Amino acid sequence: MARVLSLFTPSGRPTLGNLLGALRPSAQRLTAGAARTDHVYGIADLHALTTPHDPALLNERALELAGLAVAAGIDPERCVFFRQSAVAAHTELSYLLESTAHYGEMQRMIQFKEKSARQEVVRLSLLTYPALMAADILLYQATDVPVGADQSQHLELARDLAERFNRAYGPVFTPPRAVVPKTAARVMDLADPSRKMSKSVDSPGTIHLLDPVDVVRRKVMRAVTDSGSEVTYDPVGKPGVSNLLVILSACTDTPVEALSYSSYGALKRDTADAVIALLEPLQDRYAGIAADRAGLEKVLREGAEQARTLAAPTLAAAKSAIGLTAA
Ligand code: ATP
Ligand code: MG
Q: Which listed CATH number (1.10.240.10, 3.40.630.30, 3.40.50.1970, 1.10.10.60) goes with 213-288?
């Protein structure tokens, strides 16, 4: 049995990278005929507490992200769609997995190294959140986790923790695997193509999903390109041009090899058009969803109810195996 799970963190305003790397591939998996419980998607609001946050904003960001996920095609009628903080089993299992994980392996996580280097005060949860992420996945016995390339290491850790727990205490968890999209697994910042586009990093090279279309066009037209004038796909030698080709490829579902351009200007114009063609209808759908906030909150409440039911047997099995309750 396959079960797909992906959670999205409201740590900032969602970007084109989040859409192409995670939201859209997740939505595309919701094919007709699948059972609702084959797909578990949600808003990982607890993960937004790992770096400095504004309490009033967090709730807004969580609802905005939920609305954008639905607008991107994550149809709550076809999956279990909920807010992580509404399902207490996540934090409960997380502690059992923190007691399975080792300090050294958590410190080696690239995201921890990168994000802790950017902060004066590092929250302890930034170190431990991969255990919570493993709990998010293992609670539902998920087999496939669609994520961008930057999350592969955390998925490896979730696998390791599942296997270690199973070896030590008995077979409770299904080791999951990462499903990384073939294109756009790592969309780079348009103003600095040496680093990935991130919603928590303020940069003129980040396209936000709710940017007005003229802003989107301006950001693409101002994208940093490389020396020379030839348009070739070469992520090392020509990171800026290659990033535009990847974005255009993903937005139009055209393989990079099939794209041929003789100037940077033409490539930028077509990329801007393609991004806008994807974002404009998404923004229209979002406006409709955001106008009915109570409706969205109700959808999330119902989803949390389903998630609790789905998670309960695994949490009970894990507690029993580790010695916390009688079998
Ligand atoms: P943060 O800076 O807070 O880590 P983020 O933009 O990296 O924000 P996450 O919430 O960490 O977003 O990740 C959400 C999903 O989007 C994950 O599956 C992640 O792999 C994917 N993702 C994030 N950034 C990119 C990117 N630049 N290209 C492709 N996928 C991405
Ligand atoms: Mg990230």
A: 1.10.240.10
